[in-house]
Each structure stands twice: as structure tokens, then as C-alpha cells.
Amino acid sequence: MVAALLLIAGTLNEISKATCFSFTGRVVCRVETAEPLVALTFDDGPTTVGVESVLPALKRYNAKATFFLVGASTEIALTRRIVAEGHEVGNHSFTHQRMVGHPKAFYDDELRRTDAALVSAGAPKPTLFRPPYGKKLFGLPIAVARNGQTMVMWDSGDAPDRYPKAYAAEVLADVRPGSIVLIHPMFRSRETERQALPLILEGLTRRGYRLVTVSELLRAGRA
Ligand SMILES: [Zn+2]
Predict the structure, then answer these.
(1) Which of 64, 101, 136, 158 is the most exposed place for a label (fewest CB within 10 A)?
(2) Crossing angle of helices 139-146 and 104-120, rounded to 10°
């Protein structure tokens, strides 16, 4: 009996981390398209060190990207800069907790407060949500759908190598048309990701990819 319960708990834990599957709602981990489009996504923050490193790199390659920002960390000036350069801003929860096993009101509150923080910082109301730690099970996907948002996971970029060149090479090996790449550039400790970004941008551009927001990728996928 105990073994069976542990097996069920373990299985649910694995499913909660699945990047392309959810019992409820809709989860997007990549988009079916023949066009050479890739969406880079940046999680957490915003922080000054992250934004000041990422924005100039994107601009140099004429790339548009999607930033999944945390409501409680939404610094107005940084958010405005991201939006002003034509990037998309998505909801990454308000308090960045594991969003599994909470009551309905908790999810609704996390989503609503973050939307409000981002809108008051000058962003359009987000249509995309990314779960903290990629964790979701039953209640969160339903709340995200109820809030009119699409849950966006990724198919590339997770678990970076310690070395920027190796990390960039991993991403470039994984990416195909329609890929969604997850990058964590915001925290001070994430120097590897920040140094890898220009290498990723250079490699993707050289392979003929155009770098677009997740919403643009979703539109291309439907066409
Ligand atoms: Zn996060």
C-alpha cells in the first residue's frame, strides 16, 4: 500500500515537471512550423544585471524575445525598457513558489497580481504564463486557462552546462524550427547564460533562424 502510494506520488511529481504534457489546460513546449523561427525566453526578475546584458545582445541581432517576469520583482523602469524594445512580457507568478497543491484562490491571486504589476509597469496584459520551476499539475493549468493565458514551457535550453561555449553548443544542437528556448540570465550567479547568449544568437542567425516572440511563433504555427 505504502509502495503504491509512493509510486503514485513519484509519478505525479514526474508529470508535474513534464514540459509537453498536462492533464488539464493547454501546454505549449514548441510549435509546429516549417518556418525557421525560434523563440528565446528569459525567466525571472527582471534584474538590472540581466536586462542590461540581454537587451543589447538581442538588439545587435535584431532579435525579439519573451521575458517571463515575476510580479513581486517587477521593477517599473526595467519592465518599461523591455517593452520599449519590442519584446513580449509574460506572467511568471507573483511569488515564484512551486504552484502545485494549492487552493484555487491561490493560483488566481498569483496570476491576477502579476498581470496587474506588469500592466502598471507599462506592459500589455500578458497572454502567456510560465510556471515557476516548470511545475504544474491540475489546478494551475485550469487557472491559467481561466485567466485567458497560454501555459508556455520549452523544448531547449534547460540545465545549462557550466561553460558558456558548451551551453551555447547544447542549445544550438537541440533547436529546430518552432523551438522555444529557456534561458535564465537574471541572477548574478547566471554569468554562464549571459555569456552564452551572444553565442546562441550568432549561431541561430548563422543557421538562418529568425528570433521572434512566443506569441509570434504561436501565430506562425497556426498558419
Ligand atoms: Zn523562474
Answers:
(1) 101
(2) 40
